[in-house]
Amino acid sequence: MNTPLPAPPSSGSPRSVRPVVLAAACCLLLAGCSGVTSSGSDADAAARSGNRIKLALVTHGAKGDDFWELVRKGAEAAAAKDGVDLTYASDSDGAGQAELMRDAIADRVDGIAVTLAKPQAMKSPVAAAKAAGIPVVGLNSGIDAWRSVGLLEYFGQDERVAGRAVGDKLDGLGAKHALCVIHERGNIALEARCAGVKKTFTGQTEMLYVDGTDMDAVTAAVTTRLQQNPDIDEVIANGAQFALAAVQAAEKADSKAKVATFDLNKDLVSAVHDGSVQFAVDQQPYLQGYLAVDALWLYKTNGNVSGGGVAPVLTGPAFVTKTNVADVTRFASAGTR
Q1: Is 335 helix (H, G, I), strand (E, B) or coil?
Q2: Are 320 and 328 in contact (CB under 8 A)?
Q3: Residue 294 C-beta-side C-alpha neighbours within 13 Å
Q4: Tell me: the pLDDT tens digits for 309-336?
Q5: Which residues belong to any copy of the Periplasmic binding protein domain (predicted)?
Q6: Ranges assigned E (strand) in 123-233
Q7: How far is residue 126's CA from residue 115's CA, in Å, rounded to a whole number?
Q8: Which one of 161, 233, 311, 330 has the largest count of C-beta atoms within 10 Å of its C-beta?
């Protein structure tokens, strides 16, 4: 019996479909076609579609503050390394910072790094971010609150530990009466530092609250307090610029009080070098910004969680004194310490 020849392929035959199937298979293998879905992470999908990861850093830092410029510089360095788009916004007011975080959520960022100087104000926007599927990590402030607020990770210094270390150091230096200057009322990190000093320092510790947004007012307030009580022999500042203001205040008050501080910048490093400031406690703000952004990138691209999500990653404290300041100077000159 003769076998009939096959009919020419029609538009619906398997032969015409095969090239389409092969092309689709190649598309899946190369993950280059738009609209392709898989069981991978959101970051994988973003990478397949050619979109860059968008991250936001929202802090309570005052504008123009050298400390927060270091945090921002570290964050930008990590963003450049990881190839992500980073936006930075700050507001020292709790309600204002919360609103900035809501703006980031509305912008549909892929991750947010936030400070918790005022944890209660940030609870609602953090919850909103989580509800939107946006991971949030903490840095700098809120080491006692980050887990209860619901953050994924935390990078910073245990301020109570740092304060206690300063109290011990003051005892070693023979100080008797310390004035701890707090430049932002309600900031839990600053309060914890001074409370830590008071806990371990065997001398007298008193707090002085000043308006950190007005440096002239800060200098005047410290000057007045030193004039009122000549027994004060140590001023503890909570920021490099406030320590330098305290040096001026001691001179104006004709006080013999020494000055030490938490945090440092380029000018403060020079002050430690020449002896006008006794020491600084460095929590490495550049590192905090860098690690926070890099952690979000690692989480989005590889599911990594530093500290297992249960322990903070500590960036300090480290004492900078006249004996080791030379080791820090070159980094401070480069603007990273």
Answers
A1: coil
A2: yes
A3: 16
A4: 999 999 999 999 999 999 999 898 888 9
A5: 62-299
A6: 136-139, 154-157, 177-182, 204-209
A7: 11
A8: 233
pLDDT reported for residue 50: 57
CB 299 within 8 A of CB 141: no
Q: Which residues contact 79 (CB under 8 A, 6 or more apart)?
A: 55, 85, 86, 293
Ramachandran angles phi, psi of 205, nearest 5°: -125, 130
Tokens of 180: 């701890």
pLDDT tens for 38-95 read: 334 454 444 434 589 999 999 999 888 889 999 999 999 999 999 999 999 999 999 9
First to last CA, the chain: 92
The rounded distance, in Å, linking the Cα atoms of 273 and 290 is 27
For 317, the token pair is: 């404290």
Residue 93 has which token pair? 């007011």
